# Entry
Amino acid sequence: MKNQTLKLWTGIGMATLIAGCGTLGGEGGEGGEHHDDQLHASAHGGEGGEGGEHHGGEGGEGGEHHGGEGGEHHGGEGGEGGEGGEGGEGGEAGAAFSYFAAGGEGGEGGEGGEGGEGGEGGEGGEAGSSVSSVTSDGAYVAMLQMMQGHLLAARELIKSGDVAEGRPHLTHPFVEVYPMAEPGLEHRGQNALGGHLKVLAEKSGGIQDWSDINQQFQAAWIAIEKAVSNADEQGLSSATVSKVVLSLTKQAVLEYDEALDEGQFVAVHEYQDGRGFVRAAREYLDGQQALLKRDNKEAWRMASEALDDLQKAWPTAVPPEQPVVPVSNLYAAQARLELALAPYLF
# Structure
């Protein structure tokens, strides 16, 4: 399935895909909701305010396997994860971050991300698509937003009482995304974030409820927001903002696809990661609406509606018994979002 989906991204014909797949079906209207807490205001100018009140997850129920080519087991007790753990998003970096590659969109980096040890998937994907968190502010911000997506998933699950489901997601920012983002963080003087993420991963396996991790979570969240703000201060363009959103949603679709086997959700954490990424995309798009509306108000409206449509695939934190949206329709929804954002990209 993964090889097929990566090929779907390569040289994708938008109009053909949309005509073939039709509209995004399904009921789950809850997927489009904004998350319940006040977040992202410090970095993105969104409605929320506290910045630190987000996700939380768990780190460690014994290295569950997380998707992505080359992604071996990760997140052992307390989120050590080993080298293999770095492979999750890393293996798919070429696909998800391909919007920032010199050649535009394409899947070449995904193949690069597959190679070698699981842990090296991230670096392989990065190299394959010529994307660097040092030289690309957009890729750097997208990686930070992926961290936030993981934390969104963790926090939602833990606060709802699904502590065991939420714990592993607390390890994912450090184990899966940080290795890709670390050079960019160091380059921009944001070295403190790694320590906060490591603490979350190490403590995750022992938490019983949200109060056990809230303080550490807040510290990590604020550090991520500070790192995002550092890039935003350089003046990101509407094109870069659009690419960040598309990177998050593309990764979300890939996670959704990975979670399915013969029409059933068999990899729960992949589904949950996808939900976190698409919610992070929603927050980021909303937080940047002043810039996007200034450049093209109609494109903003269409992109917002397309993202709402795409979010319907994740109606709940725990996967439904049957997918609300067929995976082919979800790829079509991603294509429609890209078309909606095209005025900013070209």
Observations:
- The chain has 16 helices and two strands.
